[in-house]
Design brief:
seven-stranded mixed beta sheet, alpha/beta, Rossmann fold, binds S-adenosylmethionine, globular, single chain
Length: 337
Protein backbone atom coordinates (compact mmCIF):
# COMPACT_ATOMS: atom_id res chain seq x y z
CA UNK A 1 0.00 0.00 0.00
CA UNK A 2 1.38 3.36 -0.98
CA UNK A 3 1.82 6.33 1.28
CA UNK A 4 1.21 8.47 -1.79
CA UNK A 5 -2.43 7.48 -1.49
CA UNK A 6 -4.49 10.59 -2.08
CA UNK A 7 -6.95 10.56 0.79
CA UNK A 8 -9.57 13.23 1.40
CA UNK A 9 -11.29 12.85 4.80
CA UNK A 10 -15.07 13.16 4.51
CA UNK A 11 -16.94 16.14 6.10
CA UNK A 12 -13.84 17.31 7.94
CA UNK A 13 -15.06 20.90 8.10
CA UNK A 14 -18.28 19.83 9.85
CA UNK A 15 -16.30 17.61 12.27
CA UNK A 16 -14.09 20.60 13.12
CA UNK A 17 -17.08 22.88 13.66
CA UNK A 18 -18.68 20.41 16.08
CA UNK A 19 -15.46 19.89 18.05
CA UNK A 20 -14.51 23.57 18.09
CA UNK A 21 -13.08 24.84 20.38
CA UNK A 22 -11.06 21.66 20.87
CA UNK A 23 -11.14 21.06 24.63
CA UNK A 24 -7.99 19.45 25.98
CA UNK A 25 -8.26 15.76 26.70
CA UNK A 26 -8.43 12.36 25.06
CA UNK A 27 -9.96 11.95 21.60
CA UNK A 28 -10.84 8.55 20.15
CA UNK A 29 -10.77 8.02 16.38
CA UNK A 30 -12.57 4.66 16.11
CA UNK A 31 -11.89 4.29 12.38
CA UNK A 32 -8.32 5.42 11.69
CA UNK A 33 -8.20 4.47 7.96
CA UNK A 34 -5.53 6.63 6.36
CA UNK A 35 -5.44 8.81 9.49
CA UNK A 36 -7.23 11.86 8.05
CA UNK A 37 -9.27 12.69 11.16
CA UNK A 38 -6.49 11.72 13.56
CA UNK A 39 -3.97 14.07 11.91
CA UNK A 40 -6.50 16.88 12.00
CA UNK A 41 -7.28 16.42 15.70
CA UNK A 42 -3.59 16.25 16.59
CA UNK A 43 -3.07 19.77 15.18
CA UNK A 44 -4.46 20.88 18.56
CA UNK A 45 -1.51 20.68 20.90
CA UNK A 46 -3.38 19.96 24.15
CA UNK A 47 -5.07 16.81 22.99
CA UNK A 48 -4.07 13.18 22.82
CA UNK A 49 -5.53 10.62 20.44
CA UNK A 50 -6.13 6.89 20.59
CA UNK A 51 -6.96 5.60 17.13
CA UNK A 52 -8.51 2.23 16.41
CA UNK A 53 -8.81 0.23 13.20
CA UNK A 54 -9.54 -3.45 12.64
CA UNK A 55 -7.35 -3.52 9.51
CA UNK A 56 -3.64 -4.23 10.07
CA UNK A 57 -2.77 -2.81 6.66
CA UNK A 58 -3.38 0.76 7.76
CA UNK A 59 -0.41 0.68 10.20
CA UNK A 60 1.73 2.22 7.48
CA UNK A 61 -0.24 5.47 7.77
CA UNK A 62 0.44 5.75 11.47
CA UNK A 63 4.26 5.81 11.22
CA UNK A 64 4.70 9.51 10.34
CA UNK A 65 2.04 10.51 12.88
CA UNK A 66 3.72 8.48 15.58
CA UNK A 67 7.14 10.00 14.81
CA UNK A 68 5.80 13.52 15.32
CA UNK A 69 3.46 12.78 18.25
CA UNK A 70 4.89 9.77 20.07
CA UNK A 71 3.75 10.99 23.51
CA UNK A 72 0.16 11.74 22.57
CA UNK A 73 -0.84 9.26 19.87
CA UNK A 74 -1.46 5.52 19.96
CA UNK A 75 -2.84 3.17 17.30
CA UNK A 76 -4.69 0.02 18.35
CA UNK A 77 -5.52 -2.71 15.83
CA UNK A 78 -8.86 -3.96 17.06
CA UNK A 79 -12.58 -3.66 16.46
CA UNK A 80 -14.29 -0.64 17.96
CA UNK A 81 -16.85 -2.94 19.57
CA UNK A 82 -14.00 -3.56 22.08
CA UNK A 83 -13.81 0.14 22.96
CA UNK A 84 -14.43 -0.34 26.68
CA UNK A 85 -11.71 -2.98 26.94
CA UNK A 86 -9.31 -0.80 24.92
CA UNK A 87 -9.85 2.17 27.25
CA UNK A 88 -9.77 0.17 30.48
CA UNK A 89 -6.36 1.46 31.53
CA UNK A 90 -7.03 5.11 30.68
CA UNK A 91 -7.46 7.29 33.74
CA UNK A 92 -9.53 10.03 32.10
CA UNK A 93 -12.72 9.47 30.09
CA UNK A 94 -12.65 10.64 26.45
CA UNK A 95 -13.62 14.18 25.44
CA UNK A 96 -14.82 13.05 22.00
CA UNK A 97 -15.28 9.81 20.07
CA UNK A 98 -15.53 9.71 16.29
CA UNK A 99 -16.72 7.00 13.89
CA UNK A 100 -16.28 7.30 10.12
CA UNK A 101 -18.04 4.07 9.22
CA UNK A 102 -17.69 1.52 6.45
CA UNK A 103 -14.83 0.59 4.16
CA UNK A 104 -12.11 2.93 3.01
CA UNK A 105 -11.33 3.53 -0.66
CA UNK A 106 -8.01 1.83 0.07
CA UNK A 107 -9.82 -1.37 0.92
CA UNK A 108 -12.44 -1.25 -1.81
CA UNK A 109 -10.02 -0.30 -4.61
CA UNK A 110 -7.59 -3.12 -3.86
CA UNK A 111 -8.54 -6.18 -6.01
CA UNK A 112 -6.75 -8.50 -3.57
CA UNK A 113 -9.27 -7.58 -0.84
CA UNK A 114 -12.15 -8.89 -3.00
CA UNK A 115 -14.63 -6.14 -2.05
CA UNK A 116 -15.67 -4.83 -5.42
CA UNK A 117 -17.48 -6.07 -8.50
CA UNK A 118 -15.45 -3.51 -10.44
CA UNK A 119 -12.20 -5.39 -9.80
CA UNK A 120 -11.42 -9.02 -10.49
CA UNK A 121 -10.33 -10.77 -7.30
CA UNK A 122 -11.01 -13.67 -4.97
CA UNK A 123 -14.18 -13.20 -2.89
CA UNK A 124 -12.96 -11.93 0.52
CA UNK A 125 -14.37 -8.58 1.76
CA UNK A 126 -12.73 -8.89 5.19
CA UNK A 127 -11.73 -5.61 6.84
CA UNK A 128 -9.65 -7.44 9.44
CA UNK A 129 -10.28 -9.49 12.59
CA UNK A 130 -12.98 -11.60 10.89
CA UNK A 131 -14.34 -15.10 11.47
CA UNK A 132 -15.75 -15.57 7.98
CA UNK A 133 -15.29 -14.14 4.49
CA UNK A 134 -17.41 -13.53 1.41
CA UNK A 135 -16.45 -16.92 -0.10
CA UNK A 136 -17.90 -18.65 2.99
CA UNK A 137 -21.18 -16.78 2.76
CA UNK A 138 -21.66 -17.29 -0.96
CA UNK A 139 -20.73 -20.99 -0.86
CA UNK A 140 -22.03 -22.16 2.52
CA UNK A 141 -25.25 -20.28 3.34
CA UNK A 142 -28.58 -21.87 2.48
CA UNK A 143 -30.67 -20.39 -0.31
CA UNK A 144 -33.10 -18.91 2.24
CA UNK A 145 -30.25 -17.33 4.18
CA UNK A 146 -28.73 -15.82 1.04
CA UNK A 147 -32.13 -14.41 0.10
CA UNK A 148 -32.51 -12.82 3.55
CA UNK A 149 -29.01 -11.33 3.43
CA UNK A 150 -29.66 -9.73 0.02
CA UNK A 151 -33.17 -8.64 0.99
CA UNK A 152 -32.48 -7.16 4.42
CA UNK A 153 -28.96 -5.82 4.03
CA UNK A 154 -29.08 -4.91 0.32
CA UNK A 155 -32.78 -4.12 -0.02
CA UNK A 156 -32.35 -6.09 -3.26
CA UNK A 157 -35.63 -6.78 -5.04
CA UNK A 158 -34.29 -9.81 -6.89
CA UNK A 159 -32.94 -11.38 -3.69
CA UNK A 160 -34.85 -14.59 -4.29
CA UNK A 161 -33.71 -15.20 -7.86
CA UNK A 162 -30.10 -14.28 -7.14
CA UNK A 163 -30.01 -16.70 -4.19
CA UNK A 164 -31.50 -19.44 -6.37
CA UNK A 165 -28.96 -18.92 -9.18
CA UNK A 166 -26.08 -18.94 -6.69
CA UNK A 167 -27.18 -22.27 -5.25
CA UNK A 168 -27.63 -23.73 -8.75
CA UNK A 169 -24.14 -22.59 -9.79
CA UNK A 170 -22.63 -24.03 -6.61
CA UNK A 171 -23.78 -27.50 -7.61
CA UNK A 172 -21.25 -27.38 -10.50
CA UNK A 173 -18.42 -25.59 -8.75
CA UNK A 174 -17.67 -23.21 -5.90
CA UNK A 175 -18.04 -19.49 -6.64
CA UNK A 176 -14.59 -18.09 -6.03
CA UNK A 177 -14.24 -14.66 -7.56
CA UNK A 178 -15.95 -11.26 -7.57
CA UNK A 179 -16.38 -11.65 -11.33
CA UNK A 180 -18.20 -15.00 -11.02
CA UNK A 181 -20.57 -13.53 -8.46
CA UNK A 182 -21.18 -10.40 -10.55
CA UNK A 183 -22.04 -12.59 -13.57
CA UNK A 184 -24.70 -14.44 -11.58
CA UNK A 185 -26.25 -11.17 -10.38
CA UNK A 186 -26.26 -9.82 -13.93
CA UNK A 187 -28.00 -12.96 -15.18
CA UNK A 188 -30.70 -12.58 -12.53
CA UNK A 189 -31.26 -8.89 -13.17
CA UNK A 190 -31.31 -9.11 -16.95
CA UNK A 191 -34.67 -10.85 -16.85
CA UNK A 192 -36.24 -8.01 -14.93
CA UNK A 193 -34.91 -4.60 -15.88
CA UNK A 194 -32.30 -2.61 -17.71
CA UNK A 195 -30.35 -1.16 -14.80
CA UNK A 196 -26.70 -0.43 -15.40
CA UNK A 197 -24.19 -3.10 -14.44
CA UNK A 198 -23.02 -0.94 -11.54
CA UNK A 199 -26.43 -0.67 -9.90
CA UNK A 200 -27.06 -4.36 -10.49
CA UNK A 201 -24.21 -5.58 -8.34
CA UNK A 202 -23.79 -2.87 -5.71
CA UNK A 203 -26.60 -3.95 -3.38
CA UNK A 204 -25.65 -7.63 -3.20
CA UNK A 205 -21.95 -6.83 -2.70
CA UNK A 206 -22.81 -4.35 0.05
CA UNK A 207 -25.07 -6.90 1.76
CA UNK A 208 -22.38 -9.60 1.81
CA UNK A 209 -19.74 -7.15 3.03
CA UNK A 210 -21.91 -6.04 5.92
CA UNK A 211 -22.52 -9.59 7.10
CA UNK A 212 -18.85 -10.63 6.66
CA UNK A 213 -17.79 -7.74 8.90
CA UNK A 214 -20.84 -7.83 11.21
CA UNK A 215 -21.10 -4.12 10.57
CA UNK A 216 -24.42 -3.45 12.33
CA UNK A 217 -23.45 -5.44 15.43
CA UNK A 218 -20.20 -3.44 15.50
CA UNK A 219 -22.10 -0.13 15.28
CA UNK A 220 -24.47 -1.16 18.06
CA UNK A 221 -21.72 -2.33 20.43
CA UNK A 222 -19.39 0.56 19.51
CA UNK A 223 -22.00 3.27 20.06
CA UNK A 224 -23.34 1.86 23.32
CA UNK A 225 -19.76 1.62 24.62
CA UNK A 226 -19.01 5.15 23.39
CA UNK A 227 -22.05 6.58 25.22
CA UNK A 228 -20.98 4.68 28.30
CA UNK A 229 -17.31 5.68 28.46
CA UNK A 230 -17.62 9.29 27.24
CA UNK A 231 -17.05 12.10 29.75
CA UNK A 232 -19.91 14.39 30.70
CA UNK A 233 -20.13 17.12 28.02
CA UNK A 234 -18.14 14.84 25.71
CA UNK A 235 -19.20 14.50 22.07
CA UNK A 236 -19.79 11.60 19.69
CA UNK A 237 -19.69 12.11 15.93
CA UNK A 238 -20.74 9.43 13.44
CA UNK A 239 -20.44 9.55 9.65
CA UNK A 240 -22.45 6.89 7.81
CA UNK A 241 -22.58 5.93 4.15
CA UNK A 242 -25.83 4.09 3.60
CA UNK A 243 -29.39 4.19 4.84
CA UNK A 244 -29.40 1.07 7.03
CA UNK A 245 -26.40 2.11 9.11
CA UNK A 246 -27.71 5.67 9.36
CA UNK A 247 -31.09 4.39 10.55
CA UNK A 248 -29.42 2.33 13.27
CA UNK A 249 -27.31 5.29 14.47
CA UNK A 250 -30.39 7.56 14.49
CA UNK A 251 -32.41 5.04 16.50
CA UNK A 252 -29.69 4.65 19.12
CA UNK A 253 -29.23 8.42 19.45
CA UNK A 254 -32.99 9.02 19.57
CA UNK A 255 -33.45 6.40 22.27
CA UNK A 256 -30.83 7.87 24.59
CA UNK A 257 -31.94 11.46 24.02
CA UNK A 258 -35.28 13.10 24.51
CA UNK A 259 -36.10 12.42 20.84
CA UNK A 260 -36.95 8.88 21.85
CA UNK A 261 -39.58 7.35 19.58
CA UNK A 262 -39.89 3.90 21.13
CA UNK A 263 -39.31 2.29 24.49
CA UNK A 264 -38.09 -1.12 25.50
CA UNK A 265 -40.87 -3.49 26.49
CA UNK A 266 -38.44 -5.38 28.71
CA UNK A 267 -37.25 -2.53 30.90
CA UNK A 268 -39.22 -0.84 33.68
CA UNK A 269 -40.64 2.60 32.90
CA UNK A 270 -38.14 4.24 35.26
CA UNK A 271 -35.16 2.76 33.29
CA UNK A 272 -36.65 3.86 29.97
CA UNK A 273 -37.10 7.36 31.34
CA UNK A 274 -33.54 7.51 32.68
CA UNK A 275 -32.16 6.29 29.33
CA UNK A 276 -33.86 9.09 27.42
CA UNK A 277 -31.86 11.72 29.25
CA UNK A 278 -28.25 10.67 28.68
CA UNK A 279 -27.32 12.45 25.46
CA UNK A 280 -28.59 15.43 23.49
CA UNK A 281 -28.50 15.81 19.70
CA UNK A 282 -26.06 18.53 18.57
CA UNK A 283 -27.44 18.70 15.05
CA UNK A 284 -31.13 17.79 15.09
CA UNK A 285 -31.19 17.27 11.33
CA UNK A 286 -28.62 15.02 9.76
CA UNK A 287 -25.73 16.90 8.07
CA UNK A 288 -24.67 16.13 4.50
CA UNK A 289 -21.56 17.22 2.54
CA UNK A 290 -21.53 20.75 1.13
CA UNK A 291 -21.63 21.42 -2.63
CA UNK A 292 -18.00 22.49 -2.39
CA UNK A 293 -17.00 19.16 -0.86
CA UNK A 294 -18.98 17.19 -3.45
CA UNK A 295 -17.16 19.00 -6.25
CA UNK A 296 -13.81 18.00 -4.73
CA UNK A 297 -14.72 14.48 -3.60
CA UNK A 298 -17.60 12.73 -5.28
CA UNK A 299 -17.11 9.70 -3.04
CA UNK A 300 -18.52 11.69 -0.14
CA UNK A 301 -21.92 11.97 -1.86
CA UNK A 302 -23.74 9.46 0.35
CA UNK A 303 -22.19 10.60 3.65
CA UNK A 304 -24.42 11.64 6.55
CA UNK A 305 -23.20 13.04 9.84
CA UNK A 306 -24.92 12.81 13.23
CA UNK A 307 -23.52 14.10 16.51
CA UNK A 308 -24.49 14.17 20.17
CA UNK A 309 -23.27 15.56 23.47
CA UNK A 310 -23.44 13.61 26.73
CA UNK A 311 -25.53 15.49 29.26
CA UNK A 312 -25.77 12.96 32.09
CA UNK A 313 -23.16 10.54 33.31
CA UNK A 314 -25.32 7.76 34.73
CA UNK A 315 -25.20 3.99 34.54
CA UNK A 316 -27.78 2.61 32.19
CA UNK A 317 -29.32 -0.76 31.45
CA UNK A 318 -30.07 -1.65 27.86
CA UNK A 319 -32.18 -4.10 25.98
CA UNK A 320 -31.26 -4.28 22.31
CA UNK A 321 -34.76 -5.14 21.12
CA UNK A 322 -35.79 -1.48 21.45
CA UNK A 323 -34.10 -0.90 18.10
CA UNK A 324 -36.15 -3.35 16.04
CA UNK A 325 -32.96 -4.55 14.38
CA UNK A 326 -33.02 -8.10 15.75
CA UNK A 327 -33.37 -9.74 12.32
CA UNK A 328 -30.17 -8.03 11.16
CA UNK A 329 -28.25 -8.89 14.32
CA UNK A 330 -29.41 -12.49 14.18
CA UNK A 331 -28.15 -12.91 10.59
CA UNK A 332 -24.80 -11.26 11.35
CA UNK A 333 -24.23 -13.32 14.48
CA UNK A 334 -25.22 -16.67 13.02
CA UNK A 335 -25.27 -16.41 9.27
CA UNK A 336 -25.15 -20.17 8.49
CA UNK A 337 -28.31 -20.91 10.50
C1 LIG B 1 -14.06 5.24 5.94
S1 LIG B 1 -12.59 4.61 6.57
C2 LIG B 1 -12.03 5.84 7.69
C3 LIG B 1 -11.21 6.93 7.06
C4 LIG B 1 -10.59 7.87 8.08
N1 LIG B 1 -11.57 8.66 8.77
C5 LIG B 1 -9.59 8.78 7.43
O1 LIG B 1 -9.81 10.01 7.44
O2 LIG B 1 -8.59 8.31 6.89
C6 LIG B 1 -13.14 3.37 7.66
C7 LIG B 1 -12.08 2.60 8.39
O3 LIG B 1 -12.70 2.04 9.53
C8 LIG B 1 -12.25 0.74 9.72
N2 LIG B 1 -13.32 0.02 10.41
C9 LIG B 1 -14.54 -0.28 9.93
N3 LIG B 1 -15.26 -0.94 10.85
C10 LIG B 1 -14.48 -1.05 11.95
C11 LIG B 1 -14.67 -1.64 13.24
N4 LIG B 1 -15.80 -2.23 13.56
N5 LIG B 1 -13.66 -1.54 14.12
C12 LIG B 1 -12.50 -0.91 13.80
N6 LIG B 1 -12.26 -0.37 12.59
C13 LIG B 1 -13.24 -0.42 11.67
C14 LIG B 1 -11.96 0.21 8.33
O4 LIG B 1 -11.01 -0.83 8.39
C15 LIG B 1 -11.46 1.47 7.62
O5 LIG B 1 -10.06 1.54 7.67
Amino acid sequence: MSLEYDHIPVMLEEVNQILHPYEKGLYIDCTFGAGGYTKNILKNKEVSVISIDRDENIKIFSKEILKKNSNRFKLIIDKFSNLEEILKKETNPPTAIIFDLGVSSLQIDNPERGFSYKNHGLLKMTMGNNNINAFDIVNKCSQERLRDIFWFFGEEREANLIAKLIVQKREDKEIETTKELAEIILRAKRYKNKQSKKDCCAKVFQAIRMVVNQELTEIYKGLISAINVLSKNGKIIVVTFHSIEDKLVKKIFDYFSNQKKGVSRYLPESENKKNSNIIKLINKKVLIPSKKELEKNNRSRSAKLRSVIKINDINFKIDRSFLNFEKFFEIEENCYA
